[in-house]
Write a structure and sequence with these properties.
alpha+beta, conserved putative lor/sdh protein from methanococcus maripaludis s2 fold, Elongation Factor Tu (Ef-tu), domain 3, OB fold (Dihydrolipoamide Acetyltransferase, E2P), 6-stranded antiparallel barrel, 22 strands, 31% helix
């Protein structure tokens, strides 16, 4: 019996030493941050910097070469229709200069005719969109078309009305350009041309956006003098996006404007995606093809003015109820996406199928269910089946709210 007890004691000592050695050499659990797979709304946006500008800008230029008198207007001053904004003393013209002045008159007369034709076209477009909207309202009342189609028809009518208003202002501006060019031609062809003055008048009632030539000096014909904005101060948003993103944006898409200095984002709506692209060099020195996206404010722009910067988020896809997880939880496993899920204190790899993604979240189509706990920002230390300790993940939680 003593021999048996002695052997049992030695066995227990050796077992305890082996257990202690095992626990001492076992890898420590990896500290990780985790978040839940949730269900809720998801938006996919194109995010770019944008600029606020006046919808109707008018550049008042020198109709003839001459000595410009000092312009007394200042940025922000109100101007009346036909008010004198600049005065020039024309220089004597040689036959070539006279021919150029006559050619300019013919050019602005042609532009005036084009502007009048655009007014008629815009009026016809507005009438067409009004009839489309009336038909859509009748069909919506009977349930033959969805509410979204009716909203699109109403938006098209509103856009057409604004285009008609802009076309009228352009026609008005063109008429003043014709008068200015005709007055300039008369001034330089009269015998007393050296003593005459050419008065440059405001083509619209509005305000001065910028005085481009404030000091007295000799200017050539066509020199921009004053930049005017129309009285209504109708502002729009211009956002230049990559051409690869522009093809995903449609008129009527929602825009959210952040970073403008106010307490909350402003709403806007895409009116037009311009049909041409231009080359722009990025801060990294890479040439990019960019496209301007024009939007109208849905919320009052408040103190914003011409040239103010905004951060725009243009919605290209959204759904109110999807299964989603933090984008930071995804990693590539071969040619598929995968995540580490936490079960029983261990990290287990799950291959998942995802679809739409934004900068924070991804839509889950399969491979993991709602409520599962996944590891965000997985490190290289994680292995299949490895022990983990979940720490609070404030960033992950905020990303899926």
């Amino acid at each position: 019996m003593k021999r048996f007890l002695r052997r049992l004691l030695w066995f227990l000592v050796l077992a305890g030493m082996a257990g202690a050695l095992f626990f001492a050499m076992r890898p420590e659990p990896v500290e990780v941050e985790a978040a839940r797979v949730t269900r809720g709304p998801l938006q996919v946006t194109v995010d770019e910097d944008g600029e606020v500008r006046s919808h109707d800008r008018f550049v008042v230029a020198a109709p003839v070469a001459g000595r410009l008198a000092r312009i007394e207007l200042h940025d922000g001053d109100a101007v009346a229709l036909g008010q004198v904004v600049a005065s020039l003393s024309p220089l004597p013209l040689d036959p070539k200069g006279r021919e150029e002045a006559e050619a300019r008159l013919r050019s602005v007369e042609a532009l005036q005719r084009e502007a009048v034709a655009r007014v008629e076209r815009a009026r016809a477009d507005l009438e067409l969109h009004r009839r489309d909207r009336e038909r859509a309202e009748q069909l919506a009342r009977t349930g033959d078309i969805p509410q979204q189609t009716l909203d699109q028809r109403r938006n098209a009518e509103s856009t057409a009305a604004k285009e008609l208003e802009a076309a009228r202002f352009r026609a008005q501006s063109a008429a003043f350009d014709v008068e200015s060019a005709r007055a300039a031609l008369l001034a330089v062809t009269r015998p007393t041309a050296a003593a005459s003055k050419v008065l440059v008048r405001a083509p619209v009632k509005g305000h001065v956006l910028r005085v481009l030539e404030a000091s007295e000096r000799v200017v050539p014909a066509g020199t921009p003098l004053v930049l005017l904005g129309e009285e209504s101060k109708h502002l729009e948003v211009v956002v230049d996006v990559l051409s690869t993103d522009a093809v995903k944006i449609s008129p009527g898409a929602m825009m959210w404007l952040d970073g403008w200095g106010g307490p909350k984002p402003l709403r806007a709506q895409v009116r037009r995606v311009e049909p041409y692209a231009f080359t722009k060099v990025s801060v990294l020195g890479i040439e990019e093809q960019r496209v301007n996206v024009i939007g109208d404010f849905l919320d009052p722009p408040g103190p914003l003015g011409d040239g103010y910067r905004v951060e725009a988020r243009i919605v290209i896809w959204e759904k109110p109820d999807v299964v989603k997880l933090p984008l930071s939880a995804l990693f590539r496993q071969g040619d598929r996406w995968a995540v580490f899920r936490v079960e029983g204190g261990r990290a287990l790899v799950s291959t998942v199928e995802v679809d739409h993604r934004n900068s924070l979240e991804a839509e889950v189509l399969g491979g993991i269910g709602e409520g599962a706990e996944v590891i965000v920002h997985p490190s290289n230390e994680l292995k299949e089946g490895g022990r983990v300790v979940v720490q609070p993940a404030n960033s992950a939680k905020s990303s899926i709210q």
